[in-house]
Hints:
Low-confidence stretches: 168-172
Strand content: 25-35%
Structural class: alpha+beta
Helix content: 10-25%
Mean pLDDT: 90
Radius of gyration: 16 Å
Shape: globular
Largest sheet: 4 strands, mixed
Number of strands: 9
Strand order of the largest sheet: 1-2-4-3
Order of helices and strands: EHEHEEEEEEEH
Amino acid sequence: MKFLTLNTHSWMEKDPLIKLKNLCDAITRQSFDVIALQEVNQLMTSALVDQSLLVTFSATNNEHPIKEDNFAFLLQQELQKNGLEYYWTWEPSHIGYDRYDEGLAVLSLNPIQETRSFFASENTAYNDYKSRKVIGIKSENQWFFNVHLGWWQDKHDPFQVNGKNALHISLL
């Protein structure tokens, strides 16, 4: 199997649409089986995507609908134009830069059988950028998880619950 994991830092750098096209071209050349993307953003104020365009999307929950500028959605659409049909999921964990639903995405060449999400951080406040989630897909009877953790130099470790590693507890 071929895997790709990438912090997209979507919509935060110069020429984001060129970056999206370059990523699409690289994925098209490699045909990764599973792709884990972090910092997958959409503007909180953007319009909702027409549901007919979400045929290969599997929601982990229905709290945050997909918007027209969702980076994973646009990537999936471009990959489809290149002849690659990716099944995918996305879920935000917090508000990024005061204007984005910022989260994680997983794309798979094989259909998604099931999705999961849970918090990796003790903090679960959507308006706090230290709130972090894990998302996963089950595809071909295998689970694949994606996580984007925070700062390594935090004075307060956001991944500790009662002195124990919260991520370890959640995965057991």
